[in-house]
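Structure tokens please, single chain.
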Amino acid sequence: MAPSGIAPRILCVGMPVRDLTFRVETVPARGSKANATHMAEICGGNALNAAIAIARLGGRVAFAGPMGDARETSSNFILERMAAEGIETTHIARVAGAATPVSAIIIDASGERTLTIYRDPTLWSVHLPAADELLADCQAVLVESRCGAFCIDLCTEARRRGIPVIVGVDRAMAPTDSLLTAASHLLFASEQVQETAGIADDADALKGLATLTPAFLAATRGPRGTIWLNETGKLEETPAFPVEAVDTLGAGDVFHGAFALRFAEGNGGAGGAAIRRGRSSFKVRPPRRWPRRPATH
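Here you go.
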């Protein structure tokens, strides 16, 4: 627990990405070309997007995970952006000879995105710093679901110490995935919760997963809001704000960061309360863009 008056410290674990975003009226057809109306270079990745949200909402945040060789430009670009946001970077592990992930993202006029990403396979063999170092003064851990291979031991130790482990799920999880049971909270998107459970309904999928894990379970559904199972297993729902979508990139990640911070601020308690507090954090803050280099038009 953070001392009174001091913001909670959240450890985010994941794989940072250098994003190149292109705005177009429509996504080009296969084999064709299209001119972009705007281009931006930003830092991304699920856990890093969440970390930026936590920092901007007033939390203290540290980041752990692999990045490329110290001599390559993408990792240095991301580290500069993280420092500007006040994110602790001392726990990032540089992998010699490896490349930091890079993605190309096309955003159409509706705000929907299509992307491709390259992740250097050698990054998955990273060894994080010791748990004692990572979990010191830590009130919550937020993890990308794809990163269980290099952080499951850390998550298990965090739970042993009574520290909540919140997993942001952005792809289907196998029923045998260790993070399903290591997590205290699992935050899905609609597509991923249905694919993970093998059930084509969000509510039924959550109930099905509740038989596999004791974790708090929730699913975000874009304009349809968020549903979750409360402490008695009853389904609850929070509506989404009515907004005109401009850019959906990282929206779920920002929600995960807000949830983690609000849960830690509440010293645990009900996950549903953190969803409501996390939702309200968007309402009281004006929209802001992630830091970026000058755009090329």
